[in-house]
Amino acid sequence: MKRPKKETLVHVEPLEVSSKAVLFDQITDWLRSNGTNLLYGGAILVAGLILITQWTARSEKGQIADYMQAPAAYERFASGEAPFDEVRKTLLSSPSLEQKYSPLIAQTLLLKGQGQEAAPFSNQALNTLTREQIPAYESFTKNTLLIAEGKLTEALYGSKQLQQSLNPYESSLSVANSLRIIGLYHALGDSAAEKEEIARLLEANKGVDAPKALRALLAETRIGSTNLESYLNARLAS
User: Fold this and answer.
1) Cβ distance 174 to 162 under 8 Å?
2) In the chain, what is the greatest distance between 2 CA atoms, to the nearest angstrom?
């Protein structure tokens, strides 16, 4: 089996989402900025965690200093300036800080290739999803963790099951999941299935009734000097 080209992991700025109402818009913006990495690089491992970073800051008596220090502490950790053990106490000093930073910590550890260390924080994010009863995002995130563990066949099966439960290409989540399926087929060396999924996605983008989320992502996501639609057309023809 032909091994997929190894991609360089990059630091991806985390999203902080304060309400479900703005979630899709922020996901769309993130996808437009990180299309290449979502398809074939390290960011495919963390998209699910980024999707569910939903938090509203709450002041707690005696914790004001940690709230003020937490953003800078996380940035030092994410940039590689400080090890996690050095900032752990600040980032996890209260339940609300733990809820906010657990997905971001998992994101950063996954990008650094530390999947085992990321697992407890990924599980915390999944527990949040379960409590908030967001099954589609929970499923997307579980598939993310399967990818992080190298279980690509299981992740592909889960992603296909999720896609069947969504309105095709009507939301950024559905489009992101379709791109993930394409990336997984590519990583598994199944060129025929990859092209079939690409063709299905491009066909859905034809005509005036094409879903807005799909049309925007294909037109505005940049892959080098071209957009995602042209890139996928080139892969389909290869």
Assistant:
1) no
2) 61
Q: How high is the pLDDT of residue 129?
A: 63
Binned average pLDDT, 10 residues per bin, the chain of 238 residues:
42 38 48 54 50 44 65 87 89 80 80 78 71 72 81 93 86 84 90 93 86 81 78 87
Q: Map residue 218 onto helix, strand or coil.
A: helix
Spatial separation of the C-alpha atoms in residues 27 and 33, rounded to whole Å: 10
Whether residue 160 contacts residue 181, with contact meaning beta carbons closer than 8 Å, is answered with: yes
CA 163, CA 136: separation in Å to the nearest integer? 9
Euclidean distance between CA atoms 39 and 27, whole angstroms:
15
> 230: Cβ–Cβ under 8 A, 6 or more apart, which residues?
223
CA–CA distance, 164 with 79 (Å, rounded to integer): 38
Q: Are 118 and 110 in contact (CB under 8 A)?
A: yes
Tokens of 75: 């940035």
Residue at 114: amino acid letter: Q
Alpha-carbon Rg for the chain, nearest whole angstrom, is: 18
In three-state secondary structure terms, 183 is helix
CA distance 94 to 97: 5
Q: Where are the domains of the chain?
A: 13-44+134-238, 53-133
Strand partners, 227: 222
